[in-house]
Design goal:
Length: 279
């Protein structure tokens, strides 16, 4: 039980939507504007990145070829647009983020398909549609200045967020995944996210409050700490529910003890687990 007052705004039918359809947009529940101005930043800032490591990815690595080419990224974005993603700003970032570099080279032919892929330790990189959807939900109300991501995984969602928010903290419970993600982000010149090896069920108390929290693994019940660490006016985007019946949920903290909750798309995430696995 949540001890805060949670007002449920919208409960959509519990049937599973078609994989690439946003029930929410078709029902006009959530308003992200199609005519939003893509900020100069997104794609541009990506181009200007200056990887600071000696092992920086080459331009050829980043741009890719064939299955990993810009054409493949653009086609993925078209598919995402067709399936309800409205934020051009988010789509621009997805078009300029080399998802293939976050997964094993053997999986590169699948990197720009709308599917999850294994990243080791029984974890998966989220589907691009889910990344886009959660990101646009996080940004839909007002641009959050300080964001916590729970579940760094391979770092792809971290890379997308890092182009869109000024202060980003990312918590991961498996040291080896976190190290790998840090290395890829560093080689891409994405230096500003701050990483924490910790159990994100407890949020990140030392940095709270956050005006955005995005969780990329699913608890059965929404952790109280995450609601506590949301600033008034802030938004939490989280998949939650028992395996096979998870829903994407959005919580807006409208006052110190008041939250508005929306149940959105049916989703399938790996579980949010407790404890830390050190390297
Ligand atoms: N956004 C990531 C998703 C990875 S899968 C990506 O695209 O790669 C979910 C991640 O959440 C896994 O890396 C898993 O280890 C991590 N995770 C699960 N429970 C967690 C917890 N309590 N705290 C922090 N990370 C957690």
């Amino acid at each position: 039980m949540l001890r805060h007052h949670v007002c449920q705004l919208q409960t959509l039918s519990p049937q599973r939507p078609k994989p690439l359809t946003s029930s929410l947009f078709t029902q006009g529940v959530f308003n992200t504007q199609r005519d939003e101005q893509p900020s100069a930043d997104a794609a541009e800032s990506r181009k200007k990145l200056t990887p600071n490591s000696q092992t920086a990815f080459s331009r050829a690595d980043r741009e890719g070829v064939g299955f990993t080419s810009q054409r493949a990224r653009d086609q993925l974005c078209e598919q995402l647009r067709d399936s309800g993603i409205r934020s051009e700003q988010v789509l621009q970032v997805i078009a300029s983020t080399p998802r293939h570099l976050f997964v094993d080279q053997a999986l590169w032919p699948h990197a720009y398909q709308n599917r999850t892929l294994p990243i080791g330790h029984g974890q998966t990189i989220s589907q691009p549609w889910v990344v886009a959807r959660m990101t646009e939900l996080l940004l839909a109300k007002k641009k959050p200045q300080k964001v916590l991501e729970v579940g760094t995984g391979c770092g792809y969602q971290t890379a997308v967020l890092s182009a869109l928010v000024p202060e980003l903290h990312s918590a991961e419970r498996i040291a080896e995944l976190q190290e790998r993600a840090k290395s890829v982000l560093n080689r891409l010149g994405i230096a500003h996210p701050q990483f924490s090896l910790s159990d994100g069920c407890w949020g990140l108390d030392v940095q709270a409050p956050f005006d955005g929290i995005l969780v990329t693994a699913a608890p059965v019940e929404v952790p109280e700490a995450l609601l506590d660490q949301l600033a008034v006016g802030g938004r939490l985007v989280i998949p939650a529910g028992p395996d096979g019946r998870q829903r994407l949920q959005v919580f807006d903290r409208v006052a110190e003890n008041d939250f508005e909750q929306q149940y959105l798309d049916d989703v399938a995430f790996v579980p949010l687990k407790s404890g830390v696995i050190a390297g």
